[in-house]
Amino acid sequence: MLNMTALALAKAIRAKKLSVTEAVAEYIKQIEQTNPHLNTFLTVSKDTALARAQTIQAQIAAGEITSPLAGVPIALKDNISTLGIRTTCAAKMLENYVPVYNATVVDRLEQAGMIVIGKLNMDEFAMGGSSETGAYGTVRNPWDTERVAGGSSGGSAAAVAAGEVPLALGSDTGGSIRQPCAFCGVTGIKPTYGAVSRYGLVAYASSLDQVGSIGRTIDDCAAVLSLIAGPDDNDSTCVISKTFTFDTPLLERLAGFRIGLPRNYFAGGINADVAQAVLAAAKELAAAGAQVEEFDMPLMDYMVPAYYIIACAEASSNLSRYDGLKYGYRSPAAETLAEVYRLSRSEGFGLEVKRRIMLGSFVLSSGYYDAYYKKALQTRTLIKQAYDRLFERFDMILSPVAPTTAYKLGENVDDPLKMYMGDIYTVSVNLAGLPAVALPCGFDRQNLPIGFQLIGAAFSESKLVSAARTYQHRTSFHLQQPGGAWV
Amino acid sequence: MNWESVIGLEVHAELATQSKIFCGCSTAFGQEPNTQVCPVCAGMPGVLPRLNRTAVEYAVRVGLALNCTITRYSKFDRKNYFYPDLPKAYQVSQLYAPICRDGHLAVEVDGTTKIIGIREIHMEEDAGKLIHDAVSDNTLMDFSRCGVPLIEIVTQPDFHSAAEVRTFLMQLREILLYLGVCDCKMQEGSLRADINISVRPEGGELGVRTEMKNLNSFKAIGRAIEYETRRQIQLLESGKQVVQETRRWDDDAGVSYGMRSKESAPEYRYFPEPDLLPIYIDDQWLQSIVENLPEMAEAKRARYMRCWGISALEAATLTSHVYVAQLFEEVAALSRNPMEAAHLVAGEIMRLMNQTDTLPEDLAVDAKKLATLITLVSSAKINRNAYKEAVEAVFIDGVDPEEYIAQRGLRMVSDADAIAEAVAAVITEQRQAVADYRAGQHKALGFLIGQAMRKLQGKGNPALVRKAMLEALE
Amino acid sequence: MEIDAQLIAYLEELSCLILSEREKQRLTDDLREILNSMARLEELNTTGVPERSHPFDNVNAFREDVVQPSLSREHILQNAPAHNSEFFIAPKTVE
Questions:
Q1: Using CB atoms within 10 A as the burial measure, which of A157, B205, B349, B440 is most buried?
Q2: Measured between CB atoms, does C47 come within 8 Å of chain A?
């Protein structure tokens, strides 16, 4: 059962080959076995999930829920607000924080009969690319537990890869869904900014954050996306009346698909195995009939700086609310108001979060605002314009997700700049608010997964999913499963 | 040396919307602490704001009334600072593109008209309330006011005296009330003013300014300005310097004291609020706001005079306060007798308000009861004296007019038999006067009617009594 | 970009943090390195380029002025480190 896709699982449940309770219990058993090795889950909501399984089973039987994923377990990155279930953002600051409201995406999953079975580890407040910055330990990569799972949605990608859950939600601010998917050999969708409500997603960088799905196959991910996407009255930036259906038939041929391949992404710091696998993916799509054409991606050197300036600026403001007064950690040593503020924040935040808050405070302060923040916003305009022009020529752009495969635990954690440069292929997508899918496309010589991404114009998810579906139909990288001592 | 003070105002007005600016919580004043709070206004992790359309329209109304340019493409920014009354640790405000700019208001001070420039009007969210708990020496935090929509009206430093400031504020207050966008209750904090003040030798260079906060009455504003002007002049005349700072006015003690020094400007790290979309006001929307503007005092005056023939003097009195005008219009509509309603409200009601020190905003008299009295007097069911007495009883004690008139026996006697009986008795008793009248001394008629009225305990219908008396004398 | 102790102290103040000596040393080095790399943006000619604070140009997302029920006070206060039955509690504010 743990090898089934989510859609197949739901089908088996509808066909009464399997009960919802059996499915939930089986996955929880797997989590209990493997989580001690992988550290993917921060909270397993066993009792509520099992109780809900019975309710959902009855509703499916009564024909009250007909969604294609009814009865399927799902786990959520722990920065997605869940009513009554602790939501920590992998931060000491929110160790005991139990939300009093559900994120919109959670309500929508539950309405569709999905069952939240737990909350997933991540980088603290989604700040990081290796899921090592959280307060509750490092997520380990199921393909090699001495390596990172990627981040910040490392728990989400690793849990799916390890068969602990068929589907997960993550969030992507600068690559945080796509990069861990690439590192863990699973599939993910980072939707267009504004396609999915952010209400209840604990904010890191508001103009960049987006919730998306992670699964074994593109069809599973697309099925979740069609449940969670769509306008939300609680999110002013999610008001465009776009919903997605991905029920178009499989395209045997990608005739008429124009795919751009950024030549300069394959020069310089990219790992040779990664470059080769991604280029092979381009060839595969060309073999399927797509028209692949090389081009030079403009502004490449300015993407990471612009991204970090904007992300840190917004983060410094978004994280100011953690002050030890309304929720979250309060320093026991604090007596005065100033101490409550400063000690609680200093003890409650980890180093990476402090680094980004300090950077954000810096770029927004008078005297530096124009040189850094304003300049970054102007750069963002140029990047968006560049993409707009590219999408006149291409339907999508095919690129690596990360320059390397999963690296060793601790390898980059002391070198923030190196870590930031690992986001070179992903951040511009967020700056321009574009959708992208990340797909497995091979393994390096150490048998670590490699991923590539397809980036589309705003709200072109259907097209991206079509291409991804054709690719996965022709390849089997996404069906490979890790093995190791933890299994 | 002659000193001149230079004063600018920042007026905060809470908008009278039903719900908060970014969430659906009620804005009602005076409820239990923390009962009008939701995840959004409590700034819980993950929440997002959603802008109240009416708040935008109210802000635009004020901009129109203050002759501002309405910003067609306006945006919100975050103002970042840590304080326990600000749950998100940033206030959503407008720095770079405020909703209105460059307006003015003409005010009359001592018979001369002064134009006060309005630099801008921006929208923002109110903060919560902090209460010091003396027992535990802690601060108690109440977020019920968090997110109540505010506008901040920033004037140019165009004032030179407390009198100018007071006149401006009173006029502004009437405008806000007429617009229906703010209840302007200074005691409840729905209208408050911060004052920037500096002094200079007349015509000289601008001096260092201080900012005064915590001004919650017109009287306090006047006193604070006078105090601060004096304080600054004394400092300068004794060779000292004015320090740029924020000062808090203690109205009980009649002094201000420094709060925090502003030697370096505060670092609010403003940046565009990413969670809200810009506001775009197109011609059509602006036009609809203009068309839905409530009728202002001037228009009301003209209409009263034009439609109902009310005198200029009465019309001016009726529109001096929006609540008086509202009362008048209600009474006029209910009684269907605008002229009588105008006489009543501009006359007796205003007199009673003065006599009882009732402020227009505290007017609680029931228009329906007043309208009833107008109907009674104009249909000759009661006479003028009874009317006046009943109006007073309605105003002061809120009595039911019909009951009151019945209990006090104020209803006019129009019964022909009763009147005939009284007249007959008078003619029998007052032979001399009757003879005088018949001899051509017409003055005697008044006396005879008076006697008949006495017999009717003053409640006789004067016209009928007169008619009956004349007939009896013929 | 020169990052000195004074700037770090200023950023601590703005960020409402107190860093340990070790953190200060780390962040001084990190910020220097990161800001130097960010300074590459200077090379770009952005004269006349508008600032984009948002991916898209949508405008006007409003809610109508209708009161919705608030959350119960118990729920509002439940996560607070210090509260009584009515209020959040902070150490006294000094003015």
A1: A157
A2: no
